[in-house]
């Protein structure tokens, strides 16, 4: 039989399962790392015990942290934290607790996900670790209970959609505009259960933060994973975070793809996802002038130093509009420190923003920063579903940090190329 080419996803599953597997095969695959946070962790732990679990499969492979409801914003949240701290202590799991920031950012920063690994998290944006060449996917708390006990999980090896991206971004246009435009094009269910691969010269020239933004939002088109083939950028990023021995991991040219799409970013303009769907994407010019009550710059999608630096560059020495609330939340302690040391936190505070310590913040309306009925928020995060950031009668617009900063200066949705 001819040896057929394979996709990255097929290669990862073949290596980890110890035999050649193909898209469509159902396999029980070993798990290299499993992440739980303060919202979904308690149910996963409960399931683990209900399944008769006593010791987790490998405490070193379990990543625990709190980010959605920190500092505890209710007695229930405090109780969840207590339960998880107790579990970590009993099981010998290192608990990052509330010290480090948003789960996905922290997993990558701590080098807990890398090329060729199968990583799961009980959170839908776990696909972000694909930026580091992992096959990473979000799973439910019940599946996570199973993983904690057995260190393995059933998967149907996904087919792959390859997105080849070429061209150079224009000023104030970047990865967030690209991923919004791709999602607008393919639709919220356009990549359902597919591994989405990001390839091409634009990706090769992109640093890790941008790659994270792309992989993070793979789930917003239904993707099971969002993978960037590891290259020197990946290995350089991982070098200071874990032991690395670079190796080749890319799809073969004769691999079978479910679909191959090409994009050119040369003429890409700033994009905005308008209420209430992530795939309802328009050019910023179409919604420019829309009144806003709040701007949120942060989240696992766009809360990194590079995003905050872009926002600060747009801001310059101006102030934010006094007619709206501006919330800035770095995605992690590291990102916070970089931003602080660059003097940008001072600039944001001076300009009128409220800067919070690393956490999910208003991203999913779980804790603070909620919007009221009839209010509109523009957010650098990844979801704008009805009620996502508070009132179901509110509206959430998604955009880049540059568009967010420009809009925060004027108080209305604003093209960042024009301020
Ligand atoms: C709370 C958690 C389960 C949820 C997710 O899975 O994504 C959240 O992080 C989100 O972004 O909606
Ligand atoms: S920042 Fe938002 S998208 Fe990311 S994990 Fe937190 S709630 Fe989910």
TrEMBL record:
Per UniProt, [4Fe-4S] cluster binds at 300, 360, 363
Q: What protein is this chain from?
A: 3-isopropylmalate dehydratase large subunit
> Which co-factors does it depend on?
[4Fe-4S] cluster
Q: Which gene encodes it?
A: leuC
Reported EC number(s) for this entry are 4.2.1.33
Q: How does it assemble?
A: Heterodimer of LeuC and LeuD.
| Native source organism of the sequence | Methanosphaerula palustris (strain ATCC BAA-1556 / DSM 19958 / E1-9c)
* Keyword Cell cycle in annotation: no
Biological process (GO) annotations held by this record are: L-leucine biosynthetic process
